[in-house]
Amino acid sequence: MIIFRLIGESFRFAFDALRQNKLRTMLSLLAITIGIFTIIAVFSAVDSFRAKLQSSVDKLGSNTIYVQKWPWIFGDYPWWKYMNRPQPSLRDFASLRDRMENADGITFEISTGNRTIKYRSSSVEGISVTGASQDFNKTWSFELQAGRYFTDNESKNGSPVCLMGADIAEGLFGSEDPIGKQAQILGRRVTVVGVFKKEGEDMLGTSLDKSVNIPINFAKGILDIQNERYNPQITVRGSTKVSLEEVESELTGLMRSIHRIRPGQEDDFALNKTTMISNQLDTMFNMVNIAGWVIGGFSILVGGFSIANIMFVSVKERTNIIGIQKSLGAKNYFILLQFIFESISLCILGGLLGLFFVFLFAKVITAVSGFEVILGLNNIILGIGISVIIGTISGFWPAYSASRLDPVEAIRS
After folding, report:
1. Secondary structure letter of residue 230 according to DSSP
2. Distance between the two ends of the chain, CA-based, in angstroms?
3. What pLDDT, in 10s, does the model give residues 149-158?
4. Which of 103, 331, 350, 401 is 20 to 30 A distant from 319 in Cα terms?
């Protein structure tokens, strides 16, 4: 009970100090407020940005490996060696499909952007066209809001059929049912058999809303699918029964065997995976977090000295009260905790103000830019935790000096 009484009295003293010396206290709390606002605002923005990016990365598949000519992250390997690498080919794809054991799906894909699709007098510009083999629905995560996926015969025979994004379907057909209608793309007429479910914009541009998907065997008759301009790649979705490292190891061995690379020779292909992007994002965001700590730390340091100054003044003003308390039997630890709790209370007030401003900042940014910034519970706890730590450190020495006062001398003052 004595702890609760101490906390209650400390909050009362803190509010009395705030009420009696509003300007002095608010100016002292300002640095704490700015520091907490800076740190938590940076962390909230980074967490929201990281979550948005990570959701985009996750759409690529956490257990998916992309066999490509160019790596996503360059090392010390000379660029001209990358230039001499071959593009992933249909032969590579066929061999992997027949020999790969730890894969749930393997597809060969090409893509071309900035195309136009037409239906009667309507057209949609700036779309991307993807040609993919039959297992596209196994290597990519998507849902259909209407229609169906390609059949095996449609993929093998290269039938003129397509899946299209929700934005394209709306732009071409409006309120009409797009299934079974014929649109024109790449100079050919294709029948719409399915429409992707609307996904919305993401930060990596992986949305299918403005994408048209056609069978790779149909694309062969229109485009040179081995040309580098169409970014040929082989996508491998690893089995959930084994680790991604095992899938990568098997894939590396098979690709070296298919390309007849001798032991000791360098690979002439790149295996890209989402963990490479995630690691780069973690490094980048850690640097931003450190910057937030440094900038906010200076404000909090100044705020800590300000709170300590308030507490020394508070001890000076209440010296005779301390003497009376000690003469009535109050222990040193009681006086010590009383002033420490008062210091913590003041810092929590500053921290809550900082968190309130972060909340307003998040709402304004979300309303103005459309990018949702969320003040998470972890950041709220962090802000209050920092306030408690700063309050404890700042209030300890004034509280210690108050607890060591001689009661007779204190009353006499």
Report:
1. G
2. 31
3. 999 999 999 9
4. 350
Please give the model's pTM, rounded to 2 decimal places: 0.70
- 108 shares its domain with 257: yes
Radius of gyration of the chain (CA): 33
Rounded to 5°, the CA angle 236-239-240 comes to 130
Q: Looking at the domain assignment, is residue 65 inside a domain? A: no
**Cα–Cα dist 36/386, whole Å:** 8
Domain boundary among 268, 301, 331: 268
Neighbours of 182 (CB within 10 A): 14
**For residue 10, what pLDDT is reported?**
63
Q: At what angle do helices 377-403 and 332-369 cross, to 10 degrees?
A: 150
**Phi, psi for 79 (deg, rounded to 5):** -65, -30
295 in the same domain as 207: no
* Same domain assignment for residues 169 and 260: yes
Mean per-residue pLDDT over the chain, rounded: 84
Tokens 């020779």 label which residue?
265
Q: Which H or E run includes 211?
A: strand 211-215
| Per-range mean pLDDT, top range of 35-49, 183-197, 331-345 | 183-197
Total domain count, the chain: 2
Residues 122 and 246 placed together within one structural domain of the fold: yes
Which domain covers residue 331, as residue numbers? 2-56+279-412
Phi first, then psi: give them for residue 75, nearest 5 degrees: -110, -140
Cα torsion angle, 105, 110, 116, 119, sign: negative
